[in-house]
Specification:
Largest sheet: 5 strands, antiparallel
Strand order of the largest sheet: 1-2-3-5-4
CATH topology: HIT family, subunit A
Number of domains: 1
CATH class: Alpha Beta
Strand content: 15-25%
Distance between the termini: 21 Å
Number of helices: 3
Bound molecules: adenosine monophosphate
CATH superfamily: HIT-like
Amino acid sequence: MSDTIFTKIIAGDIPSHKVYEDDKVFAFLDINPLSPGHTLVIPKEPAKTLDVLSDESSAAIGRALPRIARAVMAATGTDQYNILQNNGPRAHQAVFHVHFHIIPKTDGGSGLGVGWKPGNLDSVEGSALALRIAEAITN
Ligand code: AMP
């Protein structure tokens, strides 16, 4: 568990432009938006990364995220957007409290830029890797 600037935002100790709140979820505008309407959706549970978030908070986020995305679309007029969720400093996480970015992509191209260098999946290695992942999934 972590205590970050987002904990203080949830508590109202630091101001934010709140767009949504329920008993498990909080959402507010990003202070350094990549495009107008860039919104952060966070669980109130102070989990550092997604893999340690409880099932209850995960379910609450899963329910709220599409609803807030629809509202961002309606308010900004965008019909395209990215969801970004970073885990760990090498993966560009700066605030260590789980958060989902909703980032509208404007007609002019502002929004999230993605560097994507795809490889090739070897079928033998893929079979072994898929099996390892499948066997590691716990309830
Ligand atoms: P990440 O790199 O995924 O950890 O993103 C953290 C995000 O939090 C960045 O986009 C920041 O602009 C945003 N952020 C940091 N402090 C605040 C704040 N006080 N209010 C709103 N957004 C914030």
